[in-house]
Design goal:
Elements lengths: L2 E5 L3 H13 L3 E5 L2 H11 L3 E5 L7 H10 L8 E5 L12 H5 L5 E4 L4 H13 L2
Parallel strand pairs: 1-2, 1-3, 3-4, 4-5
């Protein structure tokens, strides 16, 4: 069973997305801030990581950069899942920053459940 690490500070979103992914045959681990997420990436070595961008402790962008610079982690596909487009005037994060992180995919929130599952499947099948 392929392992997905979902890192998002929105607990309800995590629970709903975890159920969605589990119903599609994935094992799902969650973390609710950036530092916890990075620690779980290192400990669990998931098959794919889904990162929210705007989180306490450490942003999804920062986690992605650390992962892509680490020889043990850089092969793990990363999806940045974010509401940055909606919060453009309330945040210092930008879409360009996301594209510069070497993330494997970038999906704006809200995302349709079937779109998220398809993108996860596509990245894992190319791994």
């Amino acid at each position: 069973m392929q392992k997905v690490l979902l890192v998002d500070d929105d607990i309800e979103f995590c629970e709903a997305t975890k159920l969605l992914l589990e119903s599609n045959g994935y094992e799902v681990i969650t973390a609710h801030d950036g530092k916890e997420g990075l620690a779980k990436v290192r400990a669990e070595k998931p098959d794919i990581v889904i990162l929210d961008v705007m989180m306490p402790e450490m942003s999804g962008y920062d986690i992605c950069v650390v992962m892509k610079e680490d020889s043990d982690l850089k092969g793990i596909p990363v999806i940045l899942l974010t509401a940055v487009d909606q919060a453009l005037f309330q945040t210092t994060y930008t879409k360009v920053m996301g594209l510069m992180t070497e993330a494997d995919d970038y999906i704006p929130k809200p995302v349709e459940p079937e779109v998220l599952v398809k993108r996860v499947q596509d990245l894992l099948s190319n791994k």
